[in-house]
Please model this.
Amino acid sequence: MAKRDYYEILGVAKESAGPEVKAAYRKLAMKFHPDRNPDDKSAEEKFKEASEAYEVLSDSEKRARYDRFGHQGVGNQGFSDVNDIFSSFGSIFEDFFGMAGGGQRGGVKRGSDLRYDMAIEFEEAVFGVEREVEIERPVRCDTCTGTGAKAGSNRNTCRTCAGHGQVNRTQGFFAVRMVCPTCAGQGSTIEKPCESCRGQGRMNKKKKLAVKVPAGVDSGVRLRLSGEGEPGPAGGPSGDLYVVLHVKESDRFVRDGLDLIVEQPIGIAQAALGCKLTVKTLDGDIEVDVPSGTQSGERLTLPGSGVPHLKGVGRGDMHVEMRVVVPKKLTKEQREILLKYAEISKEETLSSAGGFFHRIFNQD
Model:
């Protein structure tokens, strides 16, 4: 299903300034927020759609690319679920109407997701590869096991929110929830903070991770490493790590979906008379028959020599595009043969008898 225009989604004109875009998003976010539409999948989808549009149009660089190239210019935008939106725009909901991001209300909370950009070779994208990457990210504190509390110290139920992590706030006709200012949404407070992590429950460390890239991926594909994101506060579950792939271009092959296109130079005689050629594919050399009378730009198709399907069923094709090469310099023998051919075919050339240059340089 084709994506709707981002300006149409937010109901703003293309020349609208940032504050107008933000105001339009605020209106839609208030209308379709999951807390106000529990168990309403339609409202949730509209909330995600509006958030996706705002993510692009609120960023000057992304907006410029979108205005020029459309959805293709901003890659694979979108959120896998509502928690992705809250991770990206957590603070904006408080800016709008004092509302917490949502998702988990008090108690144990999930950590934020992380992103890692990884460049891979063209062949690695086609056939798949396993890479080891090293990232530095917050991990759960070993001393306090992520609670943030010193050994022997307790976490007490927050008196402000009674352990809910949120407090009600009345604004106009609406009663909305906001993050508890006392416990920062955790629902509890620490008597004595852990000395190792200073009560944060996490510390920055480097970690090596194995990333398995499946065959058939392309630039923009996101690989999810579950539980490898930031740890949740107060010992909550970790978020996920998303590895975003960037595939380097090939100096020989052009990718078109699951198909590959490769140019194959051939001589004039080979094109006219036909020949056998050895073509280099990603699977090795393949011998192909070039029929006589082949024209420049014509393609020969090698079924199943393209890119594997991501689901593991079948492969695309390889198209060998013929490029007839005309020699820039000829030997005397080659010239005589071509002149004879032109004479037989009644084709007039600059060197033919009766041709313009021939008449000039052969005047009595």
